[in-house]
Amino acid sequence: MLKKIAFGGGCHWCTEAIFQALKGVSRVEQGYVASTGENSGFSEAVIIHFNPEAISLKRLIEIHLRTHNSTSNHSMRGKYRSAVYYFSSSQQEEAEKILQELQQKFKEKLITRAFAFQNFRASREEIQNYYKKDPQKPFCKNYIDPKLKVLIEEFSENLK
What tens digit of pLDDT does each residue of 39-94 get? Predict the structure, then answer.
C-alpha cells in the first residue's frame, strides 16, 4: 500500500529530480505546500508517493536531509522551508523520532522540522518534471546534478 510524505528544503525542481530517481517512489508531485500557523504560507515542496516495503520513511528523510542544506537557516527559508510535512499524527511521531535519530549524523544542528500538511498547489505544467525534460539545461547541470551525485555516492542501493 502506498503512503505519502511531503518534503521542502530547496528548489522543488531539485527535490523532484532526487525523489524521482528512487526505487519505491511511484510518484512525485512538484509544487508548493502550506502548513498551519506561522508556516501557513506556501513554500516550494514535493509530495512523495512511496511503497514503505521498498523504501522506508527513515531512508527518505535521510536522503532529503543529505540533498539540501538542512543545517542552514538562510534568508530564503520562507520560500524554501526545510520541512517534512506529515499527513497523520502517527506519521508526525515517526518523522520527529527519525529527525532526532538522524541528528547524530550531522555536525551542525538540523533546522528541518516536521510540520502538518495543510494544503498543496501544483506547479505550472511547463516546469513539472523539470530535470527529466532537459537534464542538459544549465540549472540542471549546476544545481541538480551535484545533488544526484550525492545519491549515487551515498544511496546507490536506493536508485532505480
Answer: 999 999 999 999 999 999 999 999 999 999 999 888 888 789 999 999 999 999 99
C-alpha to C-alpha distance for 65 and 104, rounded to whole angstroms:
12
* Bridge partners (DSSP) listed for residue 121: 32
Scan for cell 536531509, then name that residue: 65
* Residue 37 falls in which region: left (phi positive, over 0), alpha (psi -120 to 50) or beta: left
Q: Which domain holds residue 147?
A: 3-158
Domain containing residue 140: CATH number? 3.30.1060.10
CA pair distance 129, 76, nearest whole angstrom: 23
Q: What residue type is 138 in one-letter code?
A: P
